[in-house]
Write a structure and sequence with these properties.
Blueprint: H1 12-19, H2 33-54, E1 68-72, H3 80-85, E2 89-94, H4 97-110, E3 115-118, E4 128-134, H5 143-152, E5 154-165, H6 169-178, H7 198-207, E6 210-221, E7 225-229, E8 235-242
Length: 243
């Protein structure tokens, strides 16, 4: 892989790792099975946040019509496609060229127009009304610079929704010991030392000129699967706007 431009927050080894997963990204039983299980909860959370932020009708099937959205670290489009179906004009970026190739092919098959780009947040100009970045922060080379980049492309009245694992014994057990040890998550996907606590993430956001709107946990249970929770010990969402 070519070297990254100066100031890039991309970790080339992480991009290469996820590029190797591109071929079966859309297989709900493949290496991205966990993301498929998380996606309905992620979408429900995002829908609730945008409805509250802009005072939208919760029954509107295209609440993002007329708005621009950017999905940063989009993989093969698991979130970008639903955002497009909600009416947004979507730009989606990923550091792995293999993921973007898979994303473009899948969107074409779905009849969706999405502006897919290879690169990092640095390749987006903005402003975007909605910026999403789910399960990406823990994979970048410079979290502070990365969040500053997200803030840079956010519109004045825009909304940023981010999710990432917490750095706890629970996340180590569930994502690495079990997930990578006996589950479907490929080994080496997570580096527990790069996980950030909610307090650390929120501090970086405030430093970037953002105001925290909400912080909600994403939990898992054997009976309920993934669900929103007051517990942030496994994973969590942070929603922010310009301060």
């Amino acid at each position: 892989m070519a070297s990254e431009p100066a100031g890039s927050t991309i970790d080339p080894s992480e991009a290469a790792h996820f590029g190797r997963m591109a071929a079966d990204w859309w297989d709900p039983n493949g290496s991205s099975a966990m993301l498929h299980k998380m996606n309905p909860v992620r979408l429900a959370y995002i829908r609730d946040r945008i409805d509250q932020h802009w005072g939208l009708d919760e029954c509107d099937l295209r609440p993002l019509a007329g708005r621009r959205a950017a999905d940063v670290g989009c993989g093969a489009g698991l979130l970008a496609e639903p955002l497009a179906r909600l009416g947004a004009e979507v730009a989606a970026v990923d550091a792995a060229p293999e993921n973007i190739t898979a994303a473009r092919a899948h969107a074409l098959g779905q009849g969706l127009e999405i502006d897919y780009r290879v690169g990092g947040v640095e390749s987006l100009d903005g402003p975007y009304d909605l910026v999403t970045c789910l399960e990406v922060l823990e994979h970048v080379a410079d979290p502070s610079g990365f969040i500053a980049g997200l803030a840079r492309i956010l519109a004045h009245d825009g909304l940023l929704v981010l999710s990432t694992p917490n750095r706890t014994s629970m996340s180590r057990l569930m994502l690495i010991v079990i997930g990578e040890g006996i589950g479907r998550i490929p080994r080496g996907t997570h580096d527990w030392d790069k996980f950030l606590t909610p307090e650390e993430t929120c501090a970086l956001m405030r430093h970037a000129g953002l105001e925290i709107v909400d912080c909600t946990g994403l939990a898992w249970g054997p009976a309920s699967g993934f669900h929103l929770s007051d517990s942030k010990s496994l994973d969590y969402f942070v929603t922010a706007k310009r301060a």
